[in-house]
């Protein structure tokens, strides 16, 4: 034990000396380093206790047995440290909030934030001007909520939001008064669904794109999620999402729902779903349960 501890001391010294002044290195497995450092120091203390305090200059059988058992103990504790068995499950919410605020937005090829939909946001404002008679302050609130909901939200944001709700703190997301919430829902749902069909011409020709408005076709049905996002607190075992149908509803339809990994991973955070569902004639909503791990 004394020899191993001395080697550890020399190795640490060589690692420190070999790094030049402006450079820095971090210990990757810090928990393992703490375990080995503790036992490296404790080895000298144990030798002092055995040879100087308990039985001077004599090693008894029970002392040798305990010393021998310390080796597998070091290995087990180092393994538990590597698997983060002793890691704290608590999360520093203030630090995570600071990271979220300072984190730069994702940019596309043109350098524009991916969540910034200029044309759609301008159309939303135009629809408000045409269909409502609101003050400038009310329009600003509606615009801010629309912009906020268009941005992708991470799992950490929902975790912080859940912690704030449980402790009575301020909501991380923007909330509208009841009178504006109804107006906002009507404004969002009234935006028409559109599509585009592209066809390729012969060699040397130009691509032609034609647009169409689905809402104008009375024989088409539109399937969509009732909400663009769902918040789930830690400890929840399932989340229920709702698929709604509007437009033509007088028919039996079948649709397929597949889950795709985002901030959550199938098999680790939730059970993957890939199924076909059915809506009867006249049915306008379908609730689907996704099991969490």
Automatic annotation (TrEMBL):
GO terms for cellular component: axon; postsynapse; sarcolemma. The chain crosses the membrane at residues 6-22, 29-55, 61-80. GO terms for molecular function: calcium:sodium antiporter activity. One of its GO terms (biological process) is cell communication. The keyword Hydrolase does not apply. The keyword Membrane applies. Keywords: Calcium, Ion transport, Membrane, Repeat, Signal, Transmembrane, Transmembrane helix, Transport. It comes from the Eukaryota. It holds the Pfam family Calx-beta. Residues 219-293 form the Calx-beta domain. This is Calx-beta domain-containing protein.
């Amino acid at each position: 034990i004394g020899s191993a501890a001395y080697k550890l001391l020399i190795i640490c010294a060589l690692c420190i000396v070999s790094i030049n002044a402006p450079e820095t290195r971090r210990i990757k497995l810090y928990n393992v380093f703490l375990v080995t450092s503790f036992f490296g120091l404790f080895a000298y203390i144990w030798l002092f206790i055995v040879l100087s305090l308990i039985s001077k200059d004599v090693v008894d059988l029970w002392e040798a047995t305990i010393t021998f058992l310390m080796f597998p103990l070091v290995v087990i504790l180092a393994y538990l440290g590597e698997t983060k068995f002793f890691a704290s499950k608590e999360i520093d919410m203030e630090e995570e909030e600071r990271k979220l605020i300072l984190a730069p937005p994702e940019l596309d090829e043109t350098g524009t934030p991916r969540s910034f939909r200029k044309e759609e946001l301008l159309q939303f404002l135009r629809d408000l001007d045409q269909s409502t008679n609101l003050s400038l302050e009310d329009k600003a609130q509606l615009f801010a909520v629309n912009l906020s909901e268009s941005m992708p939200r991470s799992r950490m944001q929902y975790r912080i939001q859940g912690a704030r709700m449980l402790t009575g703190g301020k909501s991380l997301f923007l909330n509208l008064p009841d009178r504006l919430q109804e107006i906002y829902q009507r404004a969002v749902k009234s935006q028409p669904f559109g599509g585009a069909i592209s066809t390729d011409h012969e060699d040397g020709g130009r691509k032609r794109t034609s647009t169409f408005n689905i809402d104008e076709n009375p024989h088409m049905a539109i399937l969509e999620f009732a909400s663009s996002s769902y918040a789930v607190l830690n400890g929840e075992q399932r989340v229920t999402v709702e698929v709604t149908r509007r437009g033509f509803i007088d028919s039996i339809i079948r649709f397929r729902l597949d889950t795709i990994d985002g901030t959550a991973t199938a098999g680790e955070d939730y059970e993957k779903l890939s199924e076909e569902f059915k809506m009867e004639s006249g049915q306008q909503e379908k609730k689907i349960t996704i099991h969490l791990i």
